[in-house]
Amino acid sequence: MSVASAGRRSPVPTSDLALDVQGVCIDYGRGKRRVRAVEDVSLTVAAGETVGLVGESGSGKTSVAMATLGLVPISAGTILVNGRAIDLRQRGSVVAAGAQAVFQSPYSSLDPAMPIRAILAEAVSHLRLPRREVDARAHAVLEEVGLDPRTAERYPREFSGGQRQRISIARAMMVRPRLLICDEPTSALDLSVQAQVANLLMDLQQAHGMSYLIISHDLALVHHLASRMYVMHRGRIVETGPAAEVYRSPRDPYTRALIDAVPLPDPAAQRRRRALAAASQVELQR
């Protein structure tokens, strides 16, 4: 899709929408210190679909994710999760709409003073479920993410980074979400563990039919996971389309620069690509 049309209302898939973001603007600060971080962003995620939102640090992609989760107010536009508007004044409205999140750092997103059983139980405390059902859900989600249910009595410090991210995913799965928003879900992990977590997300989607919004600076990861992709630069959507098409034939110079930033194992190929990337940067700055 062209740059000119990328910021307009995004095309709506024929199936029901798990996420519908239209014309969203986000500001930080007040008065003369107000800064517009996101400008007229529109995107959709269909039921059962995986969509990627990519861009470098400061592009505004995480602000969009936080607004979708009801953690950041929007200055303009609308956000619907499974057809329901997110209300910052109503705590839990995002959960009630069927959305959950997996955040970047598995080290800071889990309470170190709580055993895993309590962390998982807290995720469904608002449902007032019987203890037996809570324990059954915890047992099931730990097995689904590849962890021994007996580890529920242990604390986060006893697990590796990859295992902690699996626990974060298990916590999100406790409420049986219809939409999972993943903000850089693998960037804090080793390369081999990144692949394991990415494959786990794909397996869970196949088993439960969830929708994903993957927030990442890694176009290769989004290309692997997503069917469609949006690219953000300086608070705006600059390109969107099928993930394979955008990755293979990017139309915007910024998208090309992001792809060229992915390292190659062949030094000669890396040098050739760096030369092309330098030319793209010149075009980008015009």
Binned strand content: 15-25%
Q: What is CATH's topology name of the largest domain?
A: Rossmann fold
Largest sheet, strands/sense/barrel = 6 strands, mixed
Q: Give the CATH superfamily of the largest domain.
A: P-loop containing nucleotide triphosphate hydrolases
CATH top-level class of the largest domain: Alpha Beta
Give the low-pLDDT segments.
1-15
Helix segment count? 11
Overall geometry: globular
The whole-number mean of residue pLDDT values reads: 87
Taken together, the total number of domains comes to 3
The value of Rg in angstroms is 20 Å
- The secondary-structure element order is HEEEHEEHEHHHEHEHEEHHH
Amino-to-carboxy terminus distance = 21 Å
Structural class: alpha/beta
- Kindly report the spatial arrangement of strands forming the biggest sheet: 6-7-8-3-9-10
User: Helix proportion of residues, in percent?
Assistant: 25-40%
CATH architecture of the largest domain, by name, is 3-Layer(aba) Sandwich
| Annotation, overall tally of beta strands | 10
Describe the structure.
The strands form two sheets. The chain has a six-stranded mixed beta sheet, sandwiched between helices. The protein has a four-stranded antiparallel beta sheet with strand order 2-1-4-5, with helices on one face. The chain is built from eleven helices and ten strands. The protein is an alpha/beta fold and 286 residues long. It has helices at residues 3-6, 61-68, 93-96, 116-122, 131-144, 161-173, 191-208, 219-225, 243-248, 253-260, 267-284, and strands at residues 17-28, 35-46, 50-54, 76-81, 84-85, 99-102, 179-183, 211-216, 228-233, 236-242. Strand 7, helix 7 (191-208) and strand 8 (211-216) form a beta-alpha-beta unit.
